[in-house]
Design goal:
The chain has a domain at about 1-25 and about 80-115 and about 175-210: P-loop containing nucleotide triphosphate hydrolases (Rossmann fold, 3-Layer(aba) Sandwich). Strand 5 (about 125-130) and strand 6 form a beta hairpin. It is globular. It is about 45% helix and about 15% strand. The protein has helices at about 15-25, 30-40, 45-55, 60-70, 90-105, 120-125, 165-180, 180-190, 200-210; strands spanning about 1-5, 30, 80-85, 110-115, 125-130, 135-140, 155-160, 190-195. By secondary structure, it is an alpha/beta fold. The relative contact order is 0.19. The protein binds BIS(adenosine)-5'-pentaphosphate (AP5). BIS(adenosine)-5'-pentaphosphate binds near residues 9, 53 and 85.
């Protein structure tokens, strides 16, 4: 399985990707997570990225493309990969095609997770993530049993800096203008599959499994 996950901020790309990782051991490559790791490490790239991410805009293509190319060459990607949050615009999609053709690991599917834009604000303002294991919760739709602590590992839960209302509005605008056109891009290539991202996480995963032919 070599897939791209498409969908607006908060559609549930990361949530579904983490279930696939757990069940099938295929790595999730999230450019957002890679960038947040650089921010946390305080590298020069991280400092540059943080300023852009806090505004809800896209980090320069050159930065993201370099990170993805390096990650795809690691051994664990030989059995497949899930690209989550990448590509984000047509230029990144074209560069990805060229990269994958060079590495001989072309995409098998692009899966679009579709959620009405009006539902996304609550998903994003309510999101909480475990600092230790990355497990996600939602204060409105799926809270942890104990406030502020992870059910799985008791780690501390945090709210992402870009999950503030004003930044979310900008992220949704950027998605509509720059990322949504990729649905058409992959449809033209004949590899687009779409799933509704509304409903229970497990029900959505059942549909994802069927669409991707997972056993
Ligand atoms: P990134 O980290 O990629 O964020 P995003 O695309 O905005 O997506 P999210 O992680 O916010 O949402 P998701 O779809 O994964 O939803 P989740 O599963 O968490 O990017 C952040 C920033 O980094 C960008 O703004 C940009 O600056 C930069 N960046 C990243 N990639 C880049 C690139 N390629 N180029 C340039 N810049 C880049 O779910 C959200 C919430 O909903 C959670 O609380 C979850 O528990 C809940 N939830 C999930 N499913 C359901 C459900 N079925 N019902 C109810 N609640 C649900």
């Amino acid at each position: 399985m070599r897939i791209v996950l498409l969908g607006a901020p908060g559609a549930g790309k990361g949530t579904q990707a983490k279930i696939i990782v757990e069940k099938y051991g295929i790595p999730q490559i999230s450019t957002g997570d890679l960038l947040r790791a650089a921010v946390a490490a305080g590298t020069a790239l991280g400092k540059e990225a943080k300023a852009v991410m806090d505004k809800g805009e896209l980090v320069p293509d050159s930065v993201v493309l370099g990170m993805v190319e390096e990650r795809l060459q690691k051994d664990d990607c030989k059995k497949g990969y899930i690209l989550d949050g990448f590509p984000r615009n047509t230029k990144q999609a074209e560069a990805l095609d060229a990269m994958l053709s060079k590495l001989n690991m072309a995409l098998t599917a692009a899966l679009s997770v579709d959620v009405p834009l009006e539902d996304l604000m609550k998903r994003l303002t309510g999101r909480r993530t475990c600092k230790s294991c990355g497990q996600m919760y939602n204060v409105y739709y799926g809270p942890s049993k104990k406030e502020g602590a992870c059910d799985k590992c008791s780690g501390e839960l945090f709210q992402r800096d870009d999950d503030k209302e004003e930044t979310i509005k900008k992220r949704l605008e950027v998605y509509t203008a720059q990322t949504a056109p990729l649905i058409e891009y992959y449809s033209k290539k004949g590899i687009l599959k779409s799933v509704s991202g509304t409903g229970s996480i497990n029900d959505i995963f059942a549909k994802v499994s069927e669409l991707l032919g997972l056993k």
